[in-house]
Amino acid sequence: MFTFIGTVIVSMEEHMLYMIWRPVLRDHFQPGYLIVTESKYPEHCLAFVEREAGGYWLLLYHVEDSMFENALPSIVTDATHRGEMLNRYDGEEWYANWRL
Length: 100
Prior knowledge:
Shape: globular
Oligomer: single chain
Strand order of the largest sheet: 1-5-4-3-2
Number of strands: 5
Strand content: 25-35%
Radius of gyration: 13 Å
Largest sheet: 5 strands, antiparallel
Order of helices and strands: EHEEEEHH
């Protein structure tokens, strides 16, 4: 259904580029999470997760299903879990393993 590719740290400005261009937004599921399915990366989904240290984690997923709706609930669950792992005290270790 989907494959997690990796993560990178992005700034508030980079996050706002997606917030400003509302047509690229697919859904905003809950505070602190922004899921983008229509971006410059075909067949990819972006998930922005707030960082406790400021800025955002950008999680990149490859979605095999052309109907993103089928994968979105699973991506939200995965992004929530990965965001919690990245924001923990040992988050740098997770970041090193998942870094793009």
